Amino acid sequence: MANNFFGITDIGRQRDNNEDAFIAQKAGDGNFIIACVIDGVGGYAGGEVAADITRGCILEQLSYIAGDVVPLMVNTIVMANQRIYDKKLGNKQLENMACVLTLAIIDIQNNQFYYAHVGDTRLYLLRDNSLIKISKDHSFVGFLEDSGRLSEEAAMDHPKRNEISKALGFNPQIAKDPDFVETGHSPFLPGDILLVCSDGLTDLVDKSLIKAILTGSGSLQDKGEKLIDAANSKGGKDNVTVVLAQNDKAPRQHSATRPAAATAKVVEEIIDPLAQPKLPDGPSTVPVKQKSNRGTMVILFILLGAAIAGFLWQFWLNYQLKQPEVKVTAVPVKVKNAEEIKLQDTINRLKGNVLIISDTDFKQPIVLSDTLHIQKDSLYIKAKGGIIFKADSAYSGPGISLAGSSKYIVLDSVAFEGFHVAIATQNDALVLKHVIFNGCAVPVQTSYAFPPNKYISGRLFGGMFKIDTLIKTAK
Q1: End-to-end distance of the chain based on CA atoms, in angstroms?
Q2: Which domains does the chain have, with CATH numbers?
Q3: At CB < 8 A and 24+ separation, what contacts does 433-440 make?
Q4: C-beta of residue 79 within 8 angstroms of C-beta of residue 169
Q5: Are 17 and 9 in contact (CB under 8 A)?
Q6: What sign for the dihedral angle of Cα 398, 447, 90, 174?
Q7: What is the pTM of this model?
Q8: Rounded to an integer, what distance in angstroms lies between the CA atom of residue 396 and that of residue 178?
Q9: Are strands 122-127 and 193-197 parallel, antiparallel or unpaired?
Q10: What is each CA distance from 318 to 169, 313, 322, in whole angstroms?
């Protein structure tokens, strides 16, 4: 399998730097191909740094691949996330950096591929002239498109298309969320092509044109370069990165005999699950004008032909039922709503230490399907108009989580409703002012970090919080 993978990245037509990175190479033992696209986020320097950290971590951890591939991929992504987060803590200029990625590992010998995905980079499978999108976009607009609520054309032009709900580098606790990394696996049959790409391609080039290029003539390098050219010809608004891998093994052939002396060859066929099966033509009939020996012979030949056609039809059905299907096993993805995505992004990008939340900016209540993470050293969140945080009916995690590095976080005039744990904090960072908890099993859950091998003395006082004399009614 020579020349069966290729990667290329381009700065585009409107950017001054390239925050994308990719991997297109074999693992150390030569039995696996690594195909990965990483899209950096966070400004001129930050995105490049996050993408480079992730690329280095993947090459380090996947230099030798053995055992269960999917857990190995997930652990590698968790490690890359922690390295990005640690780098941010040591450099204020990189505090907004993050990255998204799609990682595919191809088992050459066993005709399988595995993938792990976070964000809005994409994985496609081309099989028998059908282009199938495997990964799901971790964004609100991507969810609308994947669920059929928004057309591809409308999604490509949507003003919030690039607002993502998941990325590496913002939350150090992703290992505790089994749904954070989307994973799956599928057969990789002879003739199949995998495409891994950044949104710089799919924001500008639609699926039909991508398919036309991939099914056209030329090598993988030719096709990769044509995809880059297609994005740049439509404006090249972002960095564009493409990685291609192909199973270039020859399709297997099987032979079958029929009652006649001639031998028919049946070529293995890959089924498109979306297409209707094409039925073979039935036996032709010859009108009989008059009774004669010749007519009798014609009828006998017709009956013999029908019998042979019926035998071949039954053989074809049995053969098709044995063919492998494109079966992708994916971990369900949590999809955040627009309000919580907006609020998390506002917290992450806040330059100062005071955040005013108004009910004119956020619909009421703010339904949380995932934890809001506060990573800052100090932050004062003041609500105006009675802000209510409400747990989604299917969510059982914390409403708000404070990082271990937080020193002074104030929540003023907000309400929590229906959470198992409303606020998860560490040490003594949390300060509450006029906060209401309704239907919360654990309003505040506090953990303390102590150095190892040291004697600890002290006491947790119960008077740190009190019931306010001023009763505030949440709207």
Answers
A1: 65
A2: 5-246 (3.60.40.10), 272-321 (no CATH), 338-464 (no CATH)
A3: 434/468, 434/470, 434/472, 435/411, 436/472, 436/474, 438/474, 440/416
A4: no
A5: no
A6: negative
A7: 0.55
A8: 13
A9: antiparallel
A10: 51, 9, 7
**What is the rounded CA–CA span in Å between residue 140 and residue 277?**
36
Helix 220-233 crosses helix 207-215 at what angle (to 10 degrees)?
150
Amino acid at residue number 125: L
For residue 209, count other CB atoms closer than 10 A to its CB.
Answer: 15
Residue 204 CA to residue 207 CA, distance in Å, equals 10
Please tell me what DSSP assigns to residue 133.
Answer: E
CA–CA distance, 336 with 422 (Å, rounded to integer): 18
- Over residues 322-350, the pLDDT tens digits come to 555 555 555 454 567 888 888 898 898 88
The helix (run of H) or strand (run of E) holding residue 320 is: helix 293-321
User: What residue has token string 């297109």?
Assistant: 24
Give per-residue pLDDT as tens, 375-385.
888 888 988 88
Q: Cα(101)–Cα(381) distance, rounded to whole angstroms?
A: 32
